Amino acid sequence: MLVDDDRVIQKMVGGFLERKGYHVRKASDGIEALQLVHERVPDLIITDVRMPELNGLELAYRLRGHHRTAGVPILMFSEMGEAPDALVGYAAGADDYLPKPFELTILEAKVQAMLRRAAGMTAKANRGKVILFAHAKGGVGTTSLAVNIAVLLAAKASRPVGLLDLDVEFGDSAVYLNLHPSQTLADLKASPGAPVDEALFEGFVTESGSVRLVVGADSPERAELVTLPAIQLAIDRLSATCQYVLIDSPASFSERTLTALDTSDLICLVTSASLPSLKATQRCLDLFEKIGVDSGRVRLILNYSTTHLMDVNTAAGILGRKPDFVVQRSESLDRAANLGRPLVSSDPGDILVTDLKTLADWLASSVPTTPLLTA
């Protein structure tokens, strides 16, 4: 997509790229560009800075703040070619900056490089399966399940297993693993015009055996520093090196959660056997349907994490469907959490570990044709 209010630039740059084989959609300002993006997300956006209605900087801010467009490459150009002007563009979310006037061949080279880089980040070949652990109401044991399943999968996988804690305000996956990350995604700032390479990203990874943990933020007041591009980058980097990537998400539908939701191959929706949790989960399932989440990607897990002993059939009646998996009631998970060790490591002989192993094997396998239920 080419965004510029100058019709001459539209014709010159757009025509050049079309002759090179690209399909180019054109917009005269940021408002028109957002309308076109809503219809179809482009592979690359080239935008001028100075435009009426909504300028290029404001457009970049808007695009970076939405889960569908947070990762779209943005090339910004402007007659303001000084270094401070370029830094403003990078700060707004541009991936590259080109001062006017420019050679069309240089523009083409930048377009090719940005598209190659984007294709490399999103290539699916040999990338790990992304599994999102979600919940509609807190206190259902989602983090404990995600951490224990990550450890179990890592014990069998040929490559490491990634664990991304997206609860940017009160995440505690690191506590369950007794880890102390030195950096979080709130600290992730790409250098102007340069991607975050593998060596730099490794500074945000904390390892526990074959589990590679990345944490969103280390305090609630730093939550707003976690950007959507940082989340997408973490998922991309982890899935490139790990056989599975488990994402522990908060009980909210923020743009951060939607970014993870869009990226996930499988969604484990965790609920407990209490009426408030079941009602919230029912509303969550309705929301999934409204926003177009394929029901085939959703696995409903009933976790007896509370003292409520509502039976499975009663719970299924409230939810409108049977759970795909039931994890039995046990205080062992809480005891293990107090030790800072996953139950599957601290007490592998516990009866609950059998359930967790079955769940891990089920998630690791191909999508089952019939629901699996354990008692």
Number of helices: 15
Class by alpha and beta content: alpha/beta
Order of helices and strands: EHEHEHEHEHEHEHHEEHEHEHEHEHHH
Residue share in β-strands = 15-25%
Indicate the radius of gyration in whole angstroms.
23 Å
Task: Please report the total strand number as a whole number.
Answer: 13
Q: Can you identify the CATH superfamily of the largest domain? A: P-loop containing nucleotide triphosphate hydrolases
The low-confidence runs, each spanning 5 or more residues with pLDDT under 50, are 366-375
The CATH class assignment of the largest domain is Alpha Beta
Overall outline: elongated
- Second rung of CATH, namely the architecture of the largest domain: 3-Layer(aba) Sandwich
Could you say how many structural domains there are in total?
2
Question: What is the CATH topology descriptor of the largest domain?
Answer: Rossmann fold
Which sequence of strands runs across the widest sheet?
Answer: 8-9-7-10-6-11-12-13
> What's the end-to-end separation, in Å?
54 Å
Helix content: 40-55%
User: For the report, how would you describe the main beta sheet?
Assistant: 8 strands, mixed
Averaging pLDDT over every residue, what do you get?
86
Explain what you see:
The protein has 375 residues and is α/β, with parallel strands linked by helices. The chain folds into two domains: 2-122, Rossmann fold, CATH 3.40.50.2300; 129-364, 3-Layer(aba) Sandwich (Rossmann fold), CATH 3.40.50.300. The protein has helices spanning 7-19, 30-39, 56-64, 83-92, 104-122, 142-156, 173-176, 198-201, 228-241, 255-263, 275-290, 312-319, 332-339, 343-346, 351-364; strands spanning 2-3, 26-27, 45-48, 74-78, 96-99, 129-135, 161-165, 206-208, 211-215, 244-248, 266-271, 298-303, 325-327. Helix 2 packs parallel to helix 3 (56-64) and helix 9 packs parallel to helix 10 (255-263). The longest helix is centred in the N-terminal third of the chain and has 19 residues, at 104-122.
